[in-house]
């Protein structure tokens, strides 16, 4: 009897650096510690009331399949939302997915065959790696640097990474994990490269509404002469604090692309019906909701960044959007440090959970001394978490060794 | 400026034969026709009340991510369910997915690399094709015949299709689209082949609870000496009339396999939170619920099969489970016939929508004169639908031409 082995795909599939430490957190909590979870972008702000109230009005006696492309009422609600951004869309230009995750998976699948390449700016959302592995796609990193606030390098540095199998440039703005909001000039440059080289510009805009210090986000859907070459990946997860709802969508004006996405979507039948039903209420979310959320996050960002900047040996720049910040710590390996925080450290019975940043890089060796911090907790908790982190850095036994290198 | 083209994967991705005709149905309904939809396995029976009532007790102020492997309370409910089937499972042997669709996609991805093969008995659930295309996996069909009630061919015929790249045998019992429930001897034979050849037996058991005439379904999880080689794909969609909930799960006792599935699952973060919350109530579904549903379906099956058997030129055998029946019609191409039914036919303002069966075959040319009928409507509607179908077959202009061949 031979026992079957797993695919190479399964063997190379990366564990999520965000979720890998979960068992240590479970153990720490079991041991009675308070763990401030800054490792994952799980906002604690309330979902707009109208959405949860709409859910409670579901009165059908069963839960049927919806159309593969989404419930018409929900697609209509999304059209209203995009029109409010200055982006008029036809219903056929929107495809509802099971969260941004499926939107990315389908988009990669529709653009790339196994072995094809996608340019992506590192550090990048770690799960891009997972989706690429599932689809056999090769993410080709273009490195951005902490010193530049993780803004884009010059055009030549980007174009140098384009090869015969490059199919798309994947950009996330406001960025996860860096919080960087690319300037209009940066996005225009990417569009120009895509036009010149026949590439698709895939923009992950799930943090669109989270911009600070008066900045306005401009969607790639507003770029001229890019109708056939732009795909937007979107989600209600962060916008309305609905991470567990698993409702996202793709937007594109490229009809052939959307026809392919429909075929991918038909295979999995439909996205969740109940959450779409609830989200039809998104047109009734008052403008004050996002304004309040943004003010709250800007305040949290300031609390976290000011605390980090005051810690000896920590390098950080204040990000422009999203609710993440990448920080360089005076340790050699933030994986070991993050584990140690959960397993061995406590201050007043409290500790903090951060995401080691090397999993956000594709280039081996990069990001080992960086962490991503999601400032998704209320201000008093964030202050307590930062106090823990500062004390932990001072107490970390491996710190001296790292500092000597 | 070069416009990017789509991947070969996107170009070869099949449109769903179940959903392809949807626009014709929309047009027929707009034109005022009543369309009896027997094309899709969307049951009309009520969801158990306890499940929808549980949903209404959701009182959190937001909808957070759950664990990638599923909410612990829901996994616990599933453990109770499987224990009731005589299958004791550890929590780590269950992984919650976004419906059976994702369970299949992840399973194929974890077992197969691009170019690897999976044996599948045709006619088979058409979306297996789609998942295989997405993952670059080659479905190798082993044909079953209407005359045999779509039961399995002899072992030699199955083994003849196994090659160096075969990784698994995928079996669906009770079967979609044929309704066949394989005998214990048939499943034992598949297990023996898998043991001898080092293959994984993947069993799609989402119709487990739907067996008629006193038949009992035996899960492959009860097979001896197959712990490392059995994967079950499951779903609450059909069992509790929750197709739109998108909650399914994988079961396997192969730890390496489950570790890989966890990594796939981490990339997409988690399955829908609200529906898992609702489904924690499944342990409170009374046994009378499934018994009542089964009695209802058995009656519907009899209504449909007796009506079909009475139509001149139609070949059908009464299936043993699920809620589908495959029938051979006296037409040359059921695609054209199904379109004609929606576009050109009406009897008393009514027509019927069926799924052409060629999309359920991988061998070109097979199934062209077959349809799949899902008997998922109430008896009076089914009777009306069968009356429509009978009249339509008698009136179909292309029938004579087909009969002459």
How does this structure look, described?
Two copies of one chain form a homodimer. With 405 residues, chain A is α/β, with parallel strands linked by helices. Chain A has two domains: 149 residues, Aspartate Aminotransferase, domain 1, CATH 3.90.1150; 236 residues, Aspartate Aminotransferase, domain 2 (3-Layer(aba) Sandwich). Chain A contains 14 helices and 13 strands. In chain A, the strands form three sheets. A seven-stranded mixed beta sheet of chain A has the order 2-8-7-6-5-3-4, with helices on both faces. In chain A, α8 links the parallel β5 and β6. In chain A, α3 packs across α10 and α11 runs parallel beside α13. The longest helix of chain A has 23 residues. The first copy, chain A, is globular, with a radius of gyration of 21 Å. The model of chain A has no long low-confidence stretch (mean pLDDT 95). Chains A and B meet through α1, α3, α5, α6 and α8 of A and α1, α3, α5, α6 and α8 of B.
Kindly summarize this structure in a few lines.
With 405 residues, chain A is of the alpha/beta class.
Strand content of chain A: 15-25%
CATH topology term of the largest domain in chain A: Aspartate Aminotransferase, domain 2
Overall spatial form of chain A? globular
State the fourth-level CATH superfamily of the largest domain in chain A: Type I PLP-dependent aspartate aminotransferase-like (Major domain)
CATH architecture of the largest domain in chain A: 3-Layer(aba) Sandwich
Mean pLDDT of chain A: 95
Major sheet size, sense and barrel closure of chain A:
7 strands, mixed
Of all chain pairs, the largest interface belongs to: A-B, 90 and 90 residues
State the end-to-end CA separation of chain A.
52 Å
Q: How many helices of chain A?
A: 14
User: How much helicity do the residues of chain A have?
Assistant: 25-40%
Q: What is the CATH class name of the largest domain in chain A?
A: Alpha Beta
Q: What value does the Rg of chain A take, in angstroms?
A: 21 Å
Strand order, main sheet of chain A: write it out.
Answer: 2-8-7-6-5-3-4
Structural class computed from helices and strand pairing of chain A? alpha/beta
């Amino acid at each position: 009897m031979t026992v079957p082995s797993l695919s190479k795909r399964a063997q190379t599939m990366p564990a999520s650096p965000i979720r890998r430490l979960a068992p240590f957190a479970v153990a720490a909590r079991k041991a009675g510690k308070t763990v401030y979870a800054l490792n994952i972008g799980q906002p604690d702000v309330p979902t707009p009331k109208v959405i949860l109230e709409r859910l409670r009005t579901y009165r059908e006696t069963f839960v049927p399949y919806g159309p593969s492309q989404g419930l018409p009422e929900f697609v209509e609600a999304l059209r209203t939302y995009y029109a409010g951004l200055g982006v008029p869309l036809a219903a056929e230009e929107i495809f509802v997915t099971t969260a941004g995750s499926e939107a990315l998976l389908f988009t990669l699948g529709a653009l790339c065959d196994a072995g094809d390449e996608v340019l992506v700016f590192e550090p990048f959302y770690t799960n891009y790696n997972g989706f690429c592995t599932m689809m056999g796609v090769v993410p080709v990193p273009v490195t951005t640097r902490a010193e530049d606030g993780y803004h884009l390098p010059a055009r030549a540095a980007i174009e140098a990474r384009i090869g015969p199998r490059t199919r798309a440039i994947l950009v996330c703005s406001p960025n996860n994990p860096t919080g960087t909001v690319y300037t209009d000039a940066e996005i225009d440059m990417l569009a120009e490269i895509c036009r010149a080289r026949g590439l698709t510009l895939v923009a992950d805009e799930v943090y669109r509404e989270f911009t600070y210090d008066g900045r306005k986000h401009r969607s790639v859907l507003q770029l001229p002469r890019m109708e056939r070459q732009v795909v937007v990946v979107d989600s209600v997860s962060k916008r309305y604090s609905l991470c567990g709802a698993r409702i996202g969508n793709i937007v594109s004006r490229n009809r052939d692309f959307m026809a392919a996405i429909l075929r991918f979507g038909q295979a999995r039948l439909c996205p969740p019906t109940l959450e779409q039903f609830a989200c039809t209420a998104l047109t009734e979310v008052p403008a004050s909701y996002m304004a309040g959320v943004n003010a709250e996050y800007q305040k949290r960002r300031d609390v976290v960044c000011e605390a980090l900047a005051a810690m000896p040996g920590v390098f950080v720049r204040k990000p422009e959007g999203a609710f993440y910040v990448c920080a360089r710590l005076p340790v050699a390996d933030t994986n070991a440090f993050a584990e140690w925080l959960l397993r061995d450290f406590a201050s007043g019975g409290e500790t903090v959970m951060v995401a080691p940043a090397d999993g956000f890089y594709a280039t081996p060796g990069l990001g080992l001394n960086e962490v991503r911090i999601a400032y998704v907790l209320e201000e008093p908790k964030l202050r307590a978490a930062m106090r823990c982190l500062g004390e932990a850095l001072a107490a970390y036994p491996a710190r001296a060794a790292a500092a000597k290198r």
